[in-house]
Amino acid sequence: MPTGKSTTVNSPSVGALLWTLDIMNKEYGQSPDELFDVVDENDNVLHPLSRGEIHKRHLRHRAVHIFWLNQAGELCLQRRSYAKDNSPGYLSTSCAGHVDSGEKYIQAAVREFQEELGITIGSQDLMELDYAPCHENLGNEFVVSYLLRGDFTAQIYRPEVDSLVWRSPQQVIHWTQQEPDLFATPFLHLLSRNKILKSLQG
After folding, report:
1. What's the whole-model pTM score?
2. What's the domain range around 71?
3. Rounded Cα distance, 200 and 166, in Å
């Protein structure tokens, strides 16, 4: 119960917080110096550029998303780490990430799933669901979405992932309609695409 006494809490300075976040970002895969490929309007590679510059200048680049369904037909939602520079704490696809410079979409998907969820899969385990053209709701990214089915034991990488939530596809769709502000914009954009909806509900 409140006692009526005032308590002084020494908060860290803004500079200290920014320094801490910078260290976390560099250590846990959020470095602005990561290299991605800048692409043209047809998704042809132009040249590599740092993550920081690509995001700062809103240039086109590539990303992957994985929709993971377990044997019970439930969809895994990822609550993004609060240390992420994009949509921290928001619910999103089971796994998502950028395609590194020189990397293929499928290679990025396999790598990201292992990095974020600690699960080793192969390209043969993934079924391509959708190829989404570059859009502002996707952060100026061309996105290939994949479907993964099966029961696996995840060991989430805390600096990237806060937690996992399992719901039926129908529950997820209803949830996004009732509380869209809980979800990352790219996830909502991808979920609205017919190919993905049909695959999840089928």
Report:
1. 0.84
2. 33-201
3. 13
